[in-house]
Structures are given as structure tokens and as C-alpha cells.
Specification:
295 residues, alpha/beta, 6-stranded parallel sheet, 8 helices, 16 strands, 27% strand, globular
Length: 295
């Protein structure tokens, strides 16, 4: 039986390629708000005994979360064999530790709640910093999509003599991998975060980058403070304006305008979060990961 694909919110367009690649059928359904702002869900397609694939990227997650788990619960209640989630951007991965007394470790709580609603999860380069793998907080099977091969291919096709730069130690995991696949040199900067929008970055000796095009790569661009600080430092060291690449371009508030004003030569993101900067398409590796879960 063909898998039934339920795409929510802005993931509806990007899910078309996934549905085709999975040989799936688009679910007939209604999802709307009652006047009191509670969620109404109705799935008209036959769900019984079928694999259901819910596609919902989870940037700006809070308003999406209740509809998402109600859709999953409805599919299960109507007899789905399994209900999986393809969430190209997985939220609540950054507060993975109690930094100050009394704080909630929200990655863990979120993983428990989301994991109770789904049988499997596919996501792209989740923010694994202090966690070695998603399995430390998710008890359901997970499959990861890695953006590095697609980013490396984009760099090879679009950037002359690239020199890759990671803005902080955490970025080393993806920057080193992209650099190896793009056959380009790389360096990692040192970052100290003092607050949500307050970061301090120091520059190592980048003399070997002269004559190259700097390419800043980070997993998430949220407030863009990290990218902006790194661009300012590169300007001070007389390098060309960098290309900025984010796997997940969240761009909270006026972040995109502020990043553009900082003067990068180009801002490029993967299509895990819908944005005008999406230039790197991850539909194929995402479909491959979902196929593994359905096999
Ligand atoms: C750090 O933990 C991440 O890898 C990114 O550097 C960070 O999320 C970027 O955030 P912002 O754009 O708010 O500086």
C-alpha cells in the first residue's frame, strides 16, 4: 500500500518532491482553527493499516506543535500502521543543559513529547553539541540527512577558490566535512556567547586564506549575531566579503536585514526552512532517509 503523506503548513510545497520520491499519496484532510483557536483535524483518506508520513518543518515551532501532535494522534486513532515525522529542521535542540539554576532542559522534554506521538523521525543536521546523537534524547528510530555533500557541491559549482570558515568550535563537525568534500581549506574561529544576541569571536591567523573567497558556514542562522560578528572580523582582516551559508536559515525578527547590511557577498541556505535564500535543495537525501525508515 502506498504511504500516505500529510504535509503541514509551509511544508506543503516542499513535500511534493518527497511524496513523488516515496511513491506516496497526498492525504485528503482538513486542518483548521475553530473560532476559539483550538485545532480541528479531519483525515478523509483511508489511513487504516497504512504508513503515514507527516512532513512538518519545525522552525517557529510553538504554534505548529499542537496541530502536529493532534494530526499524528488522529492518524494513529484511525488505524495507521505507523506514523513517521519528516521534520527538515528539528527545533528545541539548543537548550540541552541547565546553564543557570532553575532552567528547563527543554531539548529533553521536547524529545519525550514529540517521540510519544511518532514512530520514527527524519531530520537534517540537528544541533548536536553536547549530545553525541539524537538517540540520547529520542527513544524512537531516527535517520539523519546530512547537508554537507549538497553544500560542498554548491560551493564547487558557485565559488572560486573557496576558503571555508566555521564561526565556532561547534561548527567544526559540518565545516570540516564540507571542506573535505569540496576539497577546500578551512579554519575554525573561537566564539564565546554572552547572551541570545551577544557573541564574541576571535580570529586565528588567516594569512593562508589570502587570495581565496571566504565562505562562512554555520548550522543555524537565528539572530544572525554569529555570522555578523564573523563578517565584521573578516572585514577587519582585509579579506573579501564572505559568502554566508547556513544549513537552517531561521532569521528571527530583523536578522536577515541585519545580516544583509553586514555586507556578505551572498547569503545561501538549504531548503529545510522556507526562505528566499534557499539555494541548496535537500529533497533527494531527505527522501532517501525517509525510504530507509519505511523499508
Ligand atoms: C551555535 O550554537 C550554533 O551553531 C549557531 O552558531 C548559532 O545557533 C547561531 O545563532 P545566532 O544566529 O543567533 O548567532
Amino acid at each position: 500500500m502506498r504511504p500516505l503523506v500529510i504535509a503541514l503548513f509551509e511544508s506543503r510545497d516542499s513535500a511534493v518532491a518527497l511524496r513523488r520520491a516515496l511513491g506516496g499519496e497526498t492525504a485528503e484532510m482538513e486542518l483548521r482553527r475553530f473560532p476559539d483557536e483550538e485545532t480541528y483535524v479531519r483525515i478523509d483518506s483511508d489511513v487504516s493499516g497504512r504508513e503515514v508520513v507527516v512532513v512538518c518543518t519545525l522552525d517557529r515551532p510553538d504554534p505548529k506543535f499542537v496541530p502536529l501532535i493532534l494530526v499524528a494522534a488522529t492518524a494513529r486513532d484511525l488505524g495507521a500502521a505507523r506514523v513517521g515525522l519528516v521534520s527538515p529542521y528539528l527545533c528545541y535542540m539548543r537548550q540541552d543543559k541547565r546553564f543557570k539554576p532553575g532552567e528547563g532542559i527543554t531539548s529533553t522534554y521536547f524529545a519525550k513529547t514529540l517521540g510519544a506521538s511518532f514512530d520514527w523521525l527524519v531530520t537534517t543536521d540537528p544541533h548536536l553539541h553536547r549530545l553525541a546523537s539524537l538517540g540520547e534524547i529520542y527513544s524512537i528510530p531516527t535517520a539523519l540527512v546530512h547537508a554537507a555533500p549538497s553544500i560542498a557541491a554548491w560551493i564547487r559549482a558557485n565559488v572560486e577558490a573557496p576558503f571555508l570558515i566555521g564561526p565556532d568550535g561547534e561548527s567544526e563537525q559540518w565545516v570540516a566535512s564540507v571542506a573535505a568534500q569540496a576539497d577546500a581549506p578551512h579554519a575554525i574561529l573561537e566564539k564565546t556567547r554572552h547572551g541570545d544576541r551577544d557573541v564574541e569571536i576571535s580570529l586565528p591567523d588567516l594569512s593562508r586564506a589570502r587570495g581565496h573567497t571566504p565562505v562562512l558556514i554555520d548550522d543555524i542562522i537565528s539572530s544572525a549575531s554569529t555570522m555578523i560578528k564573523a563578517i565584521d572580523l573578516l572585514k577587519g582582516s582585509e579579506m573579501d566579503a564572505p559568502v554566508c551559508i547556513g544549513v537552517h536559515g531561521i532569521f528571527g525578527g530583523d536578522a536577515f536585514a541585519r545580516l544583509r547590511a553586514a555586507g556578505p557577498s551572498r547569503i545561501v541556505t538549504c531548503n529545510t526552512v522556507l526562505h528566499d535564500t534557499n539555494a541548496i535543495d535537500l529533497s533527494e537525501p531527505t527522501a532517501a532517509a525517509a525510504r530507509r525508515m519505511l523499508a
